[in-house]
Structures are given as structure tokens and as C-alpha cells.
Amino acid sequence: MQNNTNIQENNNHKQLHEAPVSQKPTGRGGTLCRQLLSVFHLLLFLAISGLIVYTEGGPSAFLSLGKRKLVMVALAGVIFFILLTAGDRLSTFLHRTGICRWLELLLLLGTPLAMFAVVQIIVQLTELRSTASTSYLRIIKYAVFDMPVGDFLRNLVIYYFILVLLILLIRKINIACMVYCLLMVLLVLVNYYVTEFRGQAFLLLDAMGMSTAADVAGNYRLDIPIYLGITLLFTVDFSMLQLHFQRLRIPHRLQKKSLHILSQLVVLAVFALGSLYAVVNAANVSFWNTNRSYRDNGYLCALVSQVRYIHPEKPAGYSVGKVQEIGEQVSDSTQSNVTVPQNIIMIMNESLTDFESIGQVKTDSEILPFLHSLNRNVKKGQLHVPTFGGGTARTEYEALTGNSMYFLPAGSVPYQLFVHDPESGMAQILKAQGYTTIAVHPNNASNWNRANVYADMDFDQFISTENWGNDSFDKIRNFASDETTYDKLIKLFERKQSGEKLFTFCVTMQNHGGYGTETLNGYQPDVKLHYNREYPLAETYLSLARESDRAFQKLLSYFEKVDEPTMIIMFGDHWPKIENGFTASVLGKKRSELSLDGTQKTYTTPYVIWTNYPSETVEQDMSSNYLGSYVLSLAGATLTPYNHFLLDLKDKLPIIGIGAVCDTDGTWYSQNNLPEKFQKLVNEYHILEYNNQFDQKHKITEYFSIEKRPQ
After folding, report:
1. CA 439 to CA 38: how far, in whole Å?
2. Which of 348, 352, 456, 594 has the highest count of CB atoms within 10 angstroms of its CB?
3. pLDDT in tens, 267-297
């Protein structure tokens, strides 16, 4: 009798934990969960729909988009309404037909394929930007069906791996599939909006700068154009389909066995690591046109491939002995008989670009008349910078340290990843020679980790909004004006002690991105463009650039009357992100269609080195990694061997660009196609930079820093 009872209990236990694979979740908890998730999808669907209408100009403008687009939006809405109101009943009906299990399996296996298509469609929209003359079917064809088979398969490895991982972690297949859909879309939307706001694709290491990006995010408008909106609406439909129709479940007996789960994860990890290793090393990423790599090679594959660029590579032939050998061969390039300035003011002007030097700007107003008029006691030209539309700190890092982003992981921001205490550079060199060193930034001290970085660089003081004091702080739009920032520089000069030497480094904010009408805050742009299309963002930006030109003229007018020898350096950090149509008209073609050397033009900003004492006037182009050493030499400062090396290299390769270098004849060479003589020079630079920035244990400090002189 006892045996029969045990057998019956075991059978009941077995039936309880071995539910059919397609069994529908039951109970009040399961129903409540689906209801909450349905409400979430409803809110998401309504938010996307509202943003589409808002982006397209309101209800009346939205209705004039065309029948095909409206039909697709309506179809997405009908599908969503059916799933929302009758999804469970339809699912139950299909379940009773007996073919549901196969449909559920096909839905599960097809989910990565569907999300691959969605992601690549959004990547294609990111690349096209304007889709007025392109049909949605053509976009789908380019995005999905034109990809080489090898790249397609490499992407599928990643897509299936992520889905399996989510299923193992969440343990609910339908919930895991929903999270998977939303996660994939969110990941590709990051690239879409990063490209929209700064004009440069999202890179893996950009994630480190999210806090700074969030600080200025309020100055950008979140738009959802019609084709992007259609894609997102159908993705929400697909996610709802998973909620109601995906009833496959992991058997209870497997859910209870932690050892089995652990073994699953181990097997998956081994498979994934091997597969991802193959993927990472198979795909190439073009960092001067990353969105094209995302389009041609697949977004996730190209994104994951960036893993191999995260850690700075040790240069070929690196050793401490090689560093010493290069340092001993450096020639002394110190300039003799130069005036040593009592004041050095170095200004990095936010988003300042000289479009008039690139091509024709159709306007009645000259944008930078004062900068163009400077022809006495001035060095000026185009400065090639390592970033576009954002990433200010990359240009700043090159100018202050002499190190080049050319050798660092693409997308990285050294201020957040690589700076050490102490950090060799201009501030340390000038401080060792008797200058008081002050950094100024009319915004948050935490931006790009500057509070910590400036201390590591040996700045004596950092003035930000947190400790600005009682001096005026006038704004244009939502940012401190250049004029009020320059007034602060004048106050610092006036307050210094008699005979004190002062080095001030300033990063402005006036021209920061986000040029839409909603950010003007009462500011009235005064530049009008004359094109067939309107470019309000460009008009706002160009008006701000004129304000910068006027403020700089006022600053120089003040120091013209100062008796103390003063050197003022001003340069832009990167191009602004404004309408693609405007930049295409200036460049002669779309940025995505430019050749290698054409693309390099979009990484140029103006620079000026002015003195209030007699000095030679020179026009030359260079890259920002040389700027600091060049300024130090003009100021008659004692230079380090690293400074001497950079000045020697500048005479042979005046521009270290984005994935390419330019020689003195103006010929560009891609990173993978360098002549042997230039390979040697670039590798020597890499060796010195690696010792300076990464081999702290064996760093030859005297090559990069100056011993402090006794007072």
C-alpha cells in the first residue's frame, strides 16, 4: 500500500513539472503580467506615433505624406489593435489546431532573422538620412538582400547567440524574445541618433562618454522620420506577436536543475567565444566612414569587431631601448632670438569651423571676417582634428599632450580612459618654466572628466561654472557666450601679480551643437542663406560663428593695448552637426560619397596664433597633435625630446589625419598604404607615444617632461 502511494505521488510530481512544451501560462499572475506588458506596448506604440506626426510637421503635414506611407502606418496600427484586443483569443484558436507548436518554433527561429532585417533597415536609413526619393521596398532591398553571404552569416552568429543567452538568463521564452526585439532596436537607434546629433557613427568606446553626452542632450530634438517610424511600429507589432503567440516554454524539470543551466551556459560560452573570435577577426571596420561598414558588413558584426581596437596595441619593435634610441637621435629644433611671452592664452573654440575656406557659402554675410583679415604677427591655417560633430576632448587631448588619436582605439576618449597622474604636456612644461597654469571652461567641471584630468596635467586651477565667481556669465541660447568667456580671461590677466607669467587654457561653449529653433531661447540668428532649400540649423550655427569672430576681435583689441608680450592661440575642435544638404553643397557632394582625401576636409577647423609683439606671419596647415609643441617653440620655451621629435615629424608629415597621413606635397596615404619611409616615421611616433601614455612602469620621464626650475 505504501509503495502504491509513493508511486502515485511520484506520478503527480512528474506531471506537475513536465508540462507540455506548448502549454499556455495560466493563473492570475501570468494574465496580469501580459496585461502590463500590453499596456507598455500600447504606450510605446502611441509615443512612436506621436513623434512621427510631430517630426513630419503636425497632423495636416503628416496626412500629405502620400498614400503608400499612410497605408503602411495604418497597417501597423491595425495589426497592433488586433493583437492588443484579440491576441490571446487568436493564439488560443491556433493552439487548438495542432500546428501551433511548429508555428511557435518558426517564430522563435525567425526572430533573429527579423531583427537582423530591422537593424539593417535602420542602418540604411542612418546612411541615407534623406529618403524623400527612395521607396521603402528599395531601402529593404539595399539593407537586407545586397549583403555578401559571408557577412550575413557572421551577423547571424551574433544575433542567435544574444537570443539564446537571453533565453537562458530570463528562462521565459516569450519574455526573452520581447526583450531581445527591444534591445536590438535600442542598440541600433543609439547609432542612428548619435549620427543624427554629431554626424559621426557610434563606436563601441563612445559608451564611456555617455555622461557628458547626457549633459547637453537637452539641446537636441528627438525626431522620428516616417520610414524610421514605420520600421519601429512594425517592430512593436512583432514584439506584441511574441507576447501573445510565443508559448514555447523551457520544461520545469530543466528550470530546476542549476547544474544543467550552468552546463548550458558553459557550452554556450565556449561556442560563442570561438564564433565571436572568428567574427571579430574577419570583419574590417572603416573608421573614416563607419556607417558604411555598418551598412555593408552588418551593424552588430562591425560593432563587435571594434573589440579588437579597444586595447591600445603595442607598436612593432617596441622596447625601452628603442625609445632611448629614438630620443637620442632627435635634433634640437629650439628657435633662437624669439620673444618669450609673459601671457599665453590658448582657446579651443567649440565647433568653430571655417566653411568659407572649404567651399562656397551662399550668403550675403561673411562669417569670419576678422579671422580672415588677420595678416600681421599671426600664424594661421587649417588644423586637422581627430573628431567630427562631437568628441571635443579628443582634439583637446592632442593639442595639450602631443599624443595622437591615430594610435588609439577608435571612438575612445583618452580623458576617460588613458590619462595618468602625472600627465605630460603643455601645462607641465610651462609650469616648470615659471608659468601659473589655469584652465577655464564655462560649463560643468565633470564634463569629459576634466576636473581630474586638469589636475593630472599640472594645472594650478580649474575654473568652471561651479566656481566662476561674481564675474558676468551671459548666455547665448543655453550656453555661455564667447564674449563673457573672454571677459573672464581678461579678468584673470588683470588680477595676476606683477611679473607673474600666466598660461590660460580655455574651452568655450557658445557654439555647442543643438541648433534647432527650440534651443534658441530668444536668440535671433542674423545669417540668411540663399539656397533652394532652407537650412535653419546652418543659419543658426553660422550666426553663432559670426558672434565668435566678433568676440575674438574684441579680445585681441584689448591685448593689443597691453604692454606685456602676449600670445593668443585660438582653434576649433570639430565641425558642427548641421543639415547634410548644406554640408554637401559646401563640399560638392555628400559626405558619405567623399574619397579619402575629401573626407579629411571634414576634419578641419581654423587655427590662429597671434601676438601683440612683432612676429613672423605664416600660413600653414597641420594636425592638432603638433599644435602644442609648435606653440611652445614659438614661445621660446625649453622643449622636451618629445616636442623636438614632433616638430621634426611635422616637417615631413604635417598632417596625421583620420586613418591617413599627408606629406609636405599634399599627398594623402591611407593607414594601410604608407610608403616605407613614412611607415618608419609613424612607427617611431607610435613607440614614443606608447612609452609616454601606456608603459608607465618604464616611462622615460625626461623625454616628455621638464624638470621644474628653482624659483
Report:
1. 52
2. 352
3. 555 555 555 555 555 555 555 567 777 888 8
